[in-house]
Model the fold of this input.
Amino acid sequence: MAQAFDASAQQSLLTARAEEALALAKRLGADAAEVGASVDQGIGVSVRQGEVETVELSRDQGIAVTLYVGQRKGSASSTDASSASIQAAVEKALAIARYTGEDPAAGLADASLMATELPDLEVHYPWALTTDEAIELALACEQAGRDVDGISQSDGASLSSGEGVRVYANSHGFLGTQKGSSHSLSCMLIAQDASGMQRDYDYTSARDPKALRDPAEVGREAAERTLRRLGAKRPPTGTFPVLFDPSLSSGLIGHLLSGLAGGALYRQASFLCDRLGTPLFPDWFSLEERPMEIGATASSPFDGEGVQTRNNRFIDQGSIASYMLSSYSARRLGMQTTGNAGGARNVRLVAPLQSRDSLLKEMGRGIWVTELMGQGVNGVTGDYSRGAAGFWVEDGKVQYPIEEFTIAGNLERMFAGLVGIGDDTDTRGSVHTGSWLIDAMTVAGD
Amino acid sequence: MTAYKSDVDTAAAILLTPGGLDLDALETGLGYAMGAGIDYADLYFQRTWQEGWVLEDSEVKEASYNIDGGVGVRSLAGEKTGFAYSNQITADALMDTGRTAAGIVRSGKRLPGQLVSPVSAMSRYAGIDPLAGLSAEEKVAMLKQADRVARAADPSISQVSASLSGTYEVVLVRASDGTLAADIRPLVRFNVSVIAVKNGRRERGSAGGGGRYSMAKLRDDQVAEQYAKEAVRQALVNLEAIDAPAGQMPVVLASGWPGILLHEAVGHGLEGDFNRKGSSAFAGKMGERVAAKGVTIVDDATISDSRGSMSVDDEGTPGQYTPLIEDGILTGYMQDKLNARLMGMAPTGNARRESFAHLPMPRMTNTVMLAGQDEPSDIIKSVKRGIYAVSFGGGQVDITSGKFVFSASEAYLIEDGKVTAPVKGATLIGNGPEAMQRVSMIGHDMALDTGIGVCGKEGQGVPVGVGQPTLKLDELTVGGTQS
Done:
């Protein structure tokens, strides 16, 4: 049932399309050009209450052309990679470049920075999964969750599996391609008591299907996470230490990286403007990216403009050691690119870790946050105020679930107030981290 | 204005003709997607042309153009959905996707085919290409005007970015229940964002809007100047803002965009799928009091030219005016065909999908609380100590527990019945059903937002509108830093 996907054939096809687009751009008068093309194919199934709900076969493709006429820039993209569409896209991008303004910083990355080491980072693990097998795995996951006492109903389990190819090429003669895969299984459950309904979920995700957790374990964990929320109260209003669950502390690192991103810095839209070299975290904390890690979520030997990626240390012994720059943002700031066009890859902590129990003990009386809601983070000022749910902690012990409150502070103050990091590392995303204990935040509850 | 037939012909010429198809060929396409055991199948053809122009540092530095399109084929059997799509609109693609979608669901009985019945619907906006309304020079000129106005407005403005974007979308739906419908949907938007720096403080302000009309209307309405001034005003207010209080207090919501709170706190919980599955905090409450007396909330796809409006939805059902809560009593859900059929209700024209590559589901269009009787100034006067929230960044809801969260991007303290200092970092949190019971005053100043909303659900984004009068919630938790 699953559609055949020949990644190598797709790679050749996309490469040919990218070269065709570059040649055409040159012929029609562009001084420089770059092309990104990708194709992804996958299957997604969802089940609910023991029945199949949806089966979805997906196949997405796209080609994007950016070209430069002098210092003017135009872009166009299409989901159809036929020769006619490529021609239309190049012509449209050229037409646009007649109207955009001169930008001294515009252009490709320097030719001397193009990646020359292009090892296979082993991120492609196709899964020959039939629809029926996918359904069975989702059903097994959901059933394990529904079997747990107290779960009143399921909100569904889903399995998705996909693979794809991407190509980036530019008129320096650089051409990079990468095949990749991604597989995930998730389950969301509902429990009910006199105080109302609660739901929660768990998921597993990996490039290699063999690295996925056991479906039944995911279902049971989803059940446990759901049940422990029943009977939630509201915490008191006041100032308390806050322990962020690993899935949420990776979000705090995300806010940090957004603040270090060149685009926010040259626009003066970052709370970390003019802070290079200054302390931000305690001195025991360092943070780096490892783009060449084998088999990891975000591994790539080249960045979004063909520049060789490298291990960047963004925070060194608590101080800001590097911004996160592309060629464009680097030129705007009078600096050099850090190979971060397209963001940071495989972000890792370098810090002493301790058990969650020891963090709870250190916290004493406070809040363990397991869910955040809303978008209350201001990247310009660092002001932070978000809805939350979690658990009330007294004497280092978890007491009862809490909900309908906010936690507020400022990111700079929160980073400086980082007390400790847990060894409960969440490895599902591109950022790996354990729990974070922050010394004090304002809690608004009852 | 029931320009119906012409829309189908136009859409067919744009979507089908290039791939060698015509309306008759869709019968064959549907045949592949039906087969034994399938209750319903539909073909959704779509093509979009998108354009975006961005100004930064007083120059238009970025402009992009995107063409997307294809066909999505869906086969339904009971609660099961099979779905496949292709970005080719050809006979081969219809056969492949149809067989794939149908092959996924294979139980039940065969239903008789239905005769084609073209849907007749009122047009809620002009079926035009909005991108063609202005020349490239005029688009650049609008952006530069916004930049000049913002920079001239105040010396503290250090950065100005402005964007102009538009989408021309053509859709055609053919379903096994006989539905044949088409829609030509323009959508445009203009946005200005500024950074103000003063005494070492840096704050952002932004403003924007648009709707389902030509880019020429944005120029004619002089939105570049209007939104530039509004963005500067907001940034200057935020430069003076003090820390928001923390704790429970009365909250007054301004008219217009703060209606996003209703969208989150109530709207999502009234979508048919969540209620069929029993996962909404509003499930099983039809006919019960779920909000204070005086609260009437409708989902209205029929508002002329509004960002969330739909002449027909993505299943070909005409866009409608759907009362959800009337004088505090729950009276309606928003439905697509699948959930309506399974719940024994009628579709309400709320089936929406991000694109042909996504499955439709019940979604809001323009969600609005109707006007009450109160004078807005009396509402402010009635509060001893609380918050006046004028604009919001974004919000989120957990439809199961009913908890919602919003971040105010412009808010003020109310002290002794007067609006006083601006506050920053005010997040509001509450429980939808409870918050709606605490609405105690409703202004007569109902207003729609300016056309900026994007609603996300299960990873799919669609444009929406919201609206409300000034209203007072007796108690809500405000999450500032001053406890």
About this structure: Chain A touches chain B through 78 residues (CB under 8 Å). The first helix of chain A runs from residue 7 to 27. Chain A has three domains: 7-227, 238-251+352-444, 258-346.
